[in-house]
Write a structure and sequence with these properties.
alpha+beta, Pnp Oxidase, Chain A, Thrombin, subunit H, six-stranded antiparallel barrel
């Protein structure tokens, strides 16, 4: 499968205001079930709902994929021929031509398998829901920014499983978790960690910051007060400033994650999940 050098990034399309009633019902039911079982936050963090649904209507699929795209949810991708999982992002949804665009996998081996097989399965967590879909006839293309991405027809079905564990965790401001990045231009960027998962980290930085998508920054530091920093290599996936330019959100994913750092991150994410559940239980009284 050759790379199409001329393919432009698709427009996100129109069709605003599409609703997801079935997803809303599932989320509502699970929140009710959570309230009944929140007596032990630590035990709750280890359990999950196994109620799954399957969406086959195109308008609902598009609406759900838009939410994944707009939240920059990290995709966990598997490819035929490998037991390993890879990371990607949903970049575009073209509703007119009915295809989606995914970011290049963070592995040369994974990329080669996608090119060879033309198939992949993506999974992510969005608002506590585990979402998965299969892509057929996947083609490697080159975007207007010169970076490789993948084009695939709009999925014919999306599966989702309502879960409470192992997804992106929001980090409260009072936890004072900081992220320090030292890009090649010599500056040090400091931001407040807004969310974290085993796949990546999002941070809020004061002022307008621009970093090239795909830029890899080694030895970034995740710092909690009075604790030893966790050192990780990060790849920039996006930067987005507010209209006034007073704050920028930086989205990154982990690359070349060492076993020690992976273990430290897993402990951190688990601790944050439990703290989140504890706070929710306390707020409900």
């Amino acid at each position: 499968m050759s790379i199409d050098q001329s393919f432009p990034r698709g427009d996100v399309g129109t069709s605003p205001g599409l609703a997801l009633p079935r997803l809303a019902v599932i989320i509502g039911r699970t929140h009710t079930h959570q309230r009944r079982r929140m007596a032990d936050p630590q035990a709750s963090a280890a359990r999950y709902e196994s109620k799954s649904e399957r969406i086959t209507r195109a308008p609902q699929i598009i609406a759900l994929l838009r939410r994944i795209r707009d939240s920059h949810s990290l995709l966990n991708v598997t490819v035929p021929g490998s037991n390993q999982s890879f990371s990607s992002l949903l970049l575009d949804i073209d509703t007119d031509r009915r295809f989606i665009t995914l970011d290049e996998l963070n592995s040369q081996r994974g990329h080669a398998l996608v090119v060879e097989n033309g198939r992949l399965r993506a999974r992510c967590h969005h608002e506590g829901v585990e979402i998965s879909f299969a892509c057929e006839d996947v083609k490697a293309v080159r975007g207007s920014d010169g970076l490789v991405c993948y084009r695939a027809p709009l999925p014919t079905a999306v599966n989702y499983l309502q879960r409470r564990a192992d997804y992106r965790v929001r980090v409260a401001m009072d936890m004072k978790m900081q992220l320090f990045l030292d890009p090649p231009d010599g500056r040090t960027i400091e931001g407040r960690v807004d969310d974290i998962s085993m796949g990546g980290i999002g941070a809020l930085v004061e002022g307008r910051i621009e970093l090239r998508r795909g830029l890899q920054i080694p030895e970034c530091r995740i710092q909690l007060p009075e604790q030893k920093p966790i050192l990780v290599d990060l790849e920039v996936r996006f930067t987005r400033s507010n209209e006034k330019g007073t704050q920028t959100r930086i989205g990154t994913r982990f690359v070349n994650l060492e076993p020690q750092a992976r273990g430290e991150l897993r402990k951190l994410v688990t601790r944050l999940e439990r703290e989140m559940l504890r706070r929710k239980a306390k707020a409900r009284g």
